[in-house]
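To illustrate this point, what follows is a protein record of this kind.

___
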Amino acid sequence: MSIKEDLASELESTRREYLQLVESVPEELYGNPSANPAWTIGNVLYHITLGPPAIRTEIWMIRHASWLFSAFLNNWTSVVFNRGNALFARHPKRITREILFRSYEHGHAGLMTSLRRMEEADFSKSARYPASFVPELAGVVTVERLFRYIRLHFEVHARQIRERLG
């Protein structure tokens, strides 16, 4: 199996698991606290949908403008990113199952388009991420690792939801 096929399978599996998670959580519980002290269950579910488009942008930057990472990815921009991330997770105010499905599907489709466009050499292109940006991505991060981060991102946040639901 090629890297591209392996990643496509992993992304599809994560997509299915996300959709199953959304199906398993009644909408009336979206306003309940999650195990993440800053967010409700609905906020966490919505935050997960922001992963694919964010990763797609980062992959594009590494492939086409890697100088942006070294020039702009630092502790100050990490603070701005993390504050923005917290704000976006609280939008929209009324989170519904339909919004979650639509948002994830849109981001996933875009990420799959990016994957199809990858050349074998692209997977080893990399950038250095500061620990203050996303601790799980601290250090040298390849394009392949960014694609795989979708899975880790989902698992971390799914655990925060499942912890609260018992």
